[in-house]
Write a structure and sequence with these properties.
alpha/beta; Glutaredoxin; five-stranded mixed beta sheet; globular
Length: 154
């Protein structure tokens, strides 16, 4: 996993609209990159919904939100349409970004081990440096926690 103080790993993948999004697109902007396991699942829906509800507050403070999961562009498009998501969801189908950030790994659920995304969030300053990492996110209330941590930077 990347560490606080590290630069954001470089990436270039498609968003829900099929547009190529690169890490360099966010240069000079504060942003949160949140990783979640799968569109339309309960925890992921809660997290996306809360970021959506708070999105205008983030924008007012000049903060971008970026969601990342291994789902494809089509799944993200349907998820964005259903949830009213206005920020980019990146289709990390090849796990390029998840591996670069160190959030793709072995998980356990109900006695079963499998590979998947470990729900995590990375806060990034205008210089492209990670200043805070949430390695084990609980979806409910997370958006407000992220916003407050950005506001505490001032």
């Amino acid at each position: 996993m990347v560490s606080e103080g590290d630069s954001v790993p470089k990436f270039a993948v498609n968003d829900a609209n099929g547009n190529k999004v690169k890490s360099s697109d966010f240069k000079g902007k504060k942003h949160a990159i949140y990783f979640y396991p799968k569109d339309f699942t309960p925890g992921c829906t809660t997290e996306a919904d809360e970021f959506s509800k708070d999105y205008k507050k983030f924008q007012k403070e000049g903060i971008e939100i970026i969601g990342v999961s291994p789902d494809d562009v089509e799944s993200h498009k349907k998820f964005c349409d259903k949830m009213g998501i206005k920020y980019p969801l990146l289709a990390d189908v090849d796990k390029e970004i998840s591996n670069a950030f160190g959030v793709w790994g072995k998980k356990k659920f109900m006695g079963r081990e499998y590979m998947g995304v470990m729900r995590s969030t990375f806060l990034v300053n205008e210089k492209g440096k990670i200043f805070k990492i949430y390695p084990k996110v609980k979806p409910a209330g997370h958006s407000k926690e992220v916003l407050q941590d950005f506001l505490n930077l001032k």
